[in-house]
Amino acid sequence: MDSYNQEVIFHLPGLFRFFEVYKDIIDNMKDNPHMFKSNFKIGSIYGCPNMIWNGGRLMLSPQPTKTRLLEIRDYMNDERIPVRFTFTNCLLEEKHTYDTYGNMLLEIFNTGHNEVICNKEVLENYIRKNYGDRYKYISSTTKRLETKEEQDKELEKDYYLVVLDYDHNKEFNYLESIPNKDKCEILCNAVCTPRCARRMEHYKIISQCQFENDNALMAKEPGCASAANDNLGMAMRQKNFISPQDINDIYAPMGFRNFKLEGRTMHPLDFIEVLIYYLIKEEYQPEVRRYLQRRVW
User: Fold this and answer.
1) Which of 14, 68, 205, 278 is buried most deeply by CB count within 10 Å?
2) For residue range 103-117, what is the model confidence (pLDDT) as tens digits?
């Protein structure tokens, strides 16, 4: 598939971990547009450094320095691509809103067109109170809104976008019934087992590990095959998977435009495969793959 029939907007993972890869991708989109599938754009690149507000996926790498954060901000601002922070720790309390590093991030990226995706109202309300419309606010799929009624109420709230719970991905009658599809963002390549009863428990363990800056709790958790095989092949085997062809044939014609890709804790080679699969024309994939593999290896 060389192009998307209608414009689609991708929200891409791992900004702070894979920043250099994204610089290569974005620069190549300008220099070699013929290699990329047409009719898509990057709506945001999301992620979070190692800090207590982070959630959804565990990030324990060294924190970027202020100089590095300014470099990322300036490059992304110049390219007019929003930075989206995954402030989705599900155990946050009011005392955590005063975190020094988190507030430094908010100040540095306070440029008027970046985004935050929140799980807990206490942090979202804190940011709205102090920054107002300087950030766009996104509702997180980590809220685990399992029922259609819960999801509908979330779509009625004051959010720029709502990331749908991906267990709704193949409920086409429900998706068709959503009136404000332009407000929805759909996660394409989740590796989590559909209807997993332990998903919220997993989010809580990740959040606690983030507080302690330690993954020891994860080692005590019963093994999860999905988490242990976080890659494109695993995602493709799941019921909720959405391919580029699905976007073209089903979701875009239905009125959905915003699609999220997972991968910020993947092995770098697996992360590259996700970008290539959704963004690069098939005939150029081997060339781009070799180039990016050398970049990360």
Assistant:
1) 14
2) 999 999 999 999 999
CA distance 163 to 187: 7
**Helix orientation angle between 285-296 and 268-279, rounded to the nearest 10 degrees:** 150
The 3 state secondary structure assigned to the chain is CCEEEEEEEEEEECCCCCHHHHHHHHHHHHHCHHHECEEEEEEEEEECCCCCCCCCCCCCCCCCCHHHHHHHHHHHHHHCCCEEEEECCCCCCHHHHHCHHHHHHHHHCCCCCEEEEECCHHHHHHHHHHHHHHEEEEECHHHCCCCHHHHHHHHCCCCCEEECCHHHCCCHHHHHHCCCHHHEEEECCCCCCCCCCCHHHHHHHHHHHHHHCCCHHHHHCCCCHHHHCCCHHHHHCCCCCCCHHHHHHHHHHHCCCEEECCCCCCCHHHHHHHHHHHHECHHHHHHHHHHHHHHHC
* pLDDT 10s digits, 201-235: 889 999 999 999 888 877 766 566 666 678 999 99
CB 231 within 8 A of CB 191: yes
Cβ proximity of 40 and 33 under 8 Å: no
Give the tens place of pLDDT for each residue, 51-61.
999 999 989 88
Average pLDDT, the chain: 93
Instruction: For 128, list phi and psi in degrees, rounded to 5.
Output: -60, -40
Residue type, position 70, single letter: L
Whether 80 and 42 have beta carbons less than 8 Å apart is answered as: no
| Per-residue confidence (pLDDT) for residue 228, from 0 to 100 | 61
Looking at the whole model, is its pTM more than 0.85? yes
Q: For residue 225, which phi and psi values (nearest 5 degrees)? A: -60, -35
Cα–Cα dist 38/281, whole Å: 9
Fill in the amino acid letter for 273. E
